[in-house]
Each structure stands twice: as C-alpha cells, then as structure tokens.
C-alpha cells in the first residue's frame, strides 16, 4: 500500500541555518503531496502542497518540489527562525478519502 | 475562519470507563476523521466518515467506535478504556469537492490519559 517515509528527528538547528527535511513516498497512482506542521499544543495545519510532478509548493519561506523520478518531496527553508520549532509531517493522498502521514520530524531551532 | 473544535484538551479516565470524545466542525465538510498520535508512529487513522450515519474503519479501529448523527459532529467512543489507549487524539475534516487537494483541517487535539 501507499506509504510515506521521512527523516527521523529531532533536528536541531541554530537560527538562520538552512533546513532540509527529507521525505520519500511509495504510491501506485499519482498522489497529491503535503507538508503539515504541528506547533506545540496545537493540531496539525497545512503548510504547503503539490498535486503533480515538478510542482513546487511554498509558504512562509518553506518550499518543497514534487519529484516523481525520485518519489520525493523534501521540505526546505533557507533561514529558520525560533518560531519554526515544531513537528513537521509529510503526507500523501491518492484522491480517495484517506491521507497517509509520515511519522513526523521534530525541529528545534536555537536562538 | 474555518474551525474544528474538540470537547476537551486534556482528559483523565480510569481503566474500564466509557469515554466520549467529541468533535465539531463549522465548514460543512462531508468527511471527518479520528486519528491517534503517538511518538515515533505519526498519525494513525482510527475511523472516518464520509457522510451522516456512514462510517468506515481505519487502520486501528479495535477498541473504538464512532457516531455521526449530524454532519458537523463526529464522536469517538472508547467502550472500555485501557491504558494502551493513552494517547493524543486528533479530529480532522475535509471536503470531497476538490479531491486532488483533499486538505484536512485539524482540531487542537485531546490528550487522553487512562489510569
């Protein structure tokens, strides 16, 4: 079945460092891909999305490009802030009801 | 502003108690979901519903049931709580009108502790 694998955390960075969180997926069809973020004490919220190959999703300085050839959707940000400290989830949906989530990667950003 | 609300942020129950977790959304969404979130395991789907009175088992339905009597409300029921059901429970909703996106909107979560 469909699955999502993302890098284990926690990831600890200093403020203004470059961030990459790796995400790869397995799917039989042509899924839509998502990154969700969960700030402390809150539920998940959508960060960005992409629906087809080579699409780039972006929001709040974060970017991810849908790479069909490598089945990847890596999350990047050029300069992280303390306020970016959160848990990040990569996810996919194949157009059905269900969304498949990765295990989550916790990010700590130090001032 | 779209909203999914859950009845409690924190809940402590005893083994064997019947537990109700309530979720309400104000977006007129057809689809609603219950997940549990555990460290290292991400989100696991317990049940979902795509219409009033309709329900489908997710990946880990054992020990849980659900009820959807109204479109905006989706309840998760632990018939006889056990300590291994201590977890964070997240409710979500989505609309099938644009299936290519299928963005889910989440509530803040209920942290349940079963003693």
What's the layout of helices and strands?
The complex is a heterodimer of chains A (111) and B (115).
Chain A: E1 3-6, E2 11-14, E3 19-21, E4 23-26, E5 32-38, E6 44-50, E7 56-59, E8 62-65, E9 75-77, E10 86-93, E11 99-101, E12 105-110
Parallel strand pairs in A: 2-12
Antiparallel strand pairs in A: 1-4, 3-9, 5-6, 5-10, 7-8, 8-9, 10-11, 10-12
Chain B: E1 4-6, E2 10-13, E3 19-25, E4 31-38, E5 42-49, E6 56-57, E7 64-70, E8 73-78, E9 87-94, E10 105-106, E11 110-114
Parallel strand pairs in B: 2-11
Antiparallel strand pairs in B: 1-3, 3-8, 4-5, 4-9, 5-6, 7-8, 9-10, 9-11
What does this structure look like?
The complex is a heterodimer of chains A (111) and B (115). In chain A, 0% of the residues lie in helices and 51% in strands. Chain A is mainly beta and 111 residues long. Chain B is mostly beta strands. In chain B, a hairpin with a 6-residue loop joins strand 5 and strand 6. The model of chain B has no long low-confidence stretch (mean pLDDT 92). Chain A binds chain B through residues 32, 34, 36, 41-46, 49, 51, 89, 93, 95-99, 101-104, and chain B through 4, 31, 40-43, 45, 48, 50, 56, 58, 90, 92, 96, 99-104, 106-109.
